[in-house]
Write a structure and sequence with these properties.
Order of helices and strands: HHH
Number of strands: 0
Distance between the termini: 100 Å
Shape: elongated
Protein name: MYO5B protein
Strand content: under 5%
Keywords: Coiled coil
Mean pLDDT: 84
Largest sheet: none
Low-confidence stretches: none
Helix content: over 70%
Structural class: mainly alpha
Oligomer: single chain
């Protein structure tokens, strides 16, 4: 059983290797054909007069630059589309952050109000008034001045 498994794996690897080799051979054939075409074109341009060679070279350069320009335009469009998408996401996240900050600001304020109301209720429940001050009505301005200073 173990040998059969190894043999099956070996056959599978051999098959994959043969498929890969066939694909590489096809690539080599295509490249050889392209090379032959380029050599033919080169030989033809060598037989032309110098002026025609220059013109032919310029036409090829114009074609190359045009193709490169089209590729760059396509890339620019992709980048602009991506930029719009990212800006839209940024707006969504900024809104979420603002909502969260507003929520954070309201929660402590509500808690503080609850704490104050709890303190008030606690003070009202206390029967012992320690710390309260007894004074005469005519001493009130003097008392306020001393509390401020």
């Amino acid at each position: 059983p173990f040998l059969r498994l190894l043999e099956a794996q070996l056959q599978e690897q051999r098959r994959e290797h043969e498929e890969e080799m066939e694909a590489l051979r096809n690539q080599v054939d295509v490249m050889q054909e392209e090379l032959e075409k380029q050599q033919q074109a080169f030989l033809q341009t060598l037989q032309l007069s110098p002026e025609v060679q220059v013109e032919f070279g310029l036409q090829q350069e114009i074609t190359r630059l045009t193709n490169e320009n089209l590729d760059l335009k396509e890339l620019l469009e992709k980048l602009e589309k991506n930029e719009k998408k990212l800006k839209k996401q940024l707006k969504i996240y900024m809104k979420k952050v603002q909502d969260f900050e507003a929520f954070q600001a309201t929660v402590p304020a509500e808690r503080r109000q609850d704490e104050r109301s709890m303190q008030v209720t606690v003070q009202r429940k206390e029967k012992d008034f320690q710390g309260m001050l007894e004074y005469y009505k005519e001493d009130e301005p003097l008392l306020i001045r001393n509390l401020i200073t």
